[in-house]
Amino acid sequence: MDLSDFEVKGQLDFVQKDVSEFRDYTIDDTDPVKERVRRTYRLMHQNQTVDYVKKCRDTWLKFNHAKMTVREALEKLNDLIDESDPDANFPNMIHAFQTAERARKEYPEHDWLHLTALIHDMGKIMAFYDVPQWAVVGDTFVVGCEWTENIVYRNESFEGNPDGSNPKYNTKYGMYEPNTGLDNLLLSWGHDEYLFNVLKHNKSKLPKQALNIIRFHSFYPWHTFGDYEHLMKPEDEETKKWVLIFNRYDLYTKSTVIPDVDALWPYYEGLIEKYAPGALEW
């Protein structure tokens, strides 16, 4: 798959509110949604350390927690509201179909992108297995080096994280070599990395670009704000372009317009059968 196959869309005429109103992380202790979001990030930034991430990988990348189909996993998200998201105070499965349908409308010929958009948050099923949301949802960041300026709530929320006082981890490069590349970074644990590995383990037929979109779509400090460039390889720039194509749908489709999920299932079940059929090991 080559980026030259894609006409990168420019207009956001489908957005239901001003784009400046998305991802509003201003502090307002009288707003219960904003306080919920801030509390989730505070716990994430306090607890996500190198050791914690390694422990999560060891626990979850055994793929021995459940067996279920893609549809079964998506339907579990009907019972999940993402506590880190200031823009979507509704079940995550609704967001999945909103995202997928916009990708389908703009790129009707690329069915792999439609399915990628539908399932991109599916790793959030960890929240149903006693994992706190701060280890499931939200923006990701690199552990093992200094926390960059464009991490949300960066100036207040990392207090108490022991990696901040560890000289192995609290410098610009930390435990990494310059330009080590995206694939060699250890990101905070969450649904992105989990689903990426689930799909690889179950031999999904989705293309590499789809897997990278899933793996890095929450890595906002990098793909939107340009942090961590000193750790990137030149080829990581193409991954960023794919993620930003997808980000239009992930972020800007969040609205009160609810898709007709029952009517849409037959189309997406066909894509599931094509790219990730049967019961997957989770």
Helix-strand blueprint:
Elements: H1 32-47, H2 50-60, E1 67-68, H3 70-76, H4 92-106, H5 111-119, H6 154-157, H7 191-201, H8 208-216, H9 220-223, H10 236-252, H11 261-275, E2 280-281
Helix pairs in contact: 4-5, 4-10, 5-8, 5-11, 7-8, 8-10
Task: Considering the chains and any ligands shown, give keywords for the structure.
about 280 residues, mainly alpha, two-stranded antiparallel sheet
Protein architecture, described:
It is a single chain. The protein has 282 residues and is mainly α. Helices cover 42% and strands 1% of the residues. It contains eleven helices and two strands. A two-stranded antiparallel sheet has the order 1-2. Helix 7 packs antiparallel against helix 8 (208-216). The longest helix is centred in the last third of the chain and has 17 residues, at 236-252. Mean pLDDT is 89; it is low at 10-17.
Give a concise summary.
With 282 residues, this protein is mostly helical. It contains 11 helices and 2 strands; from the N terminus they run ααβαααααααααβ. Residues 10-17 have low confidence and may be disordered.
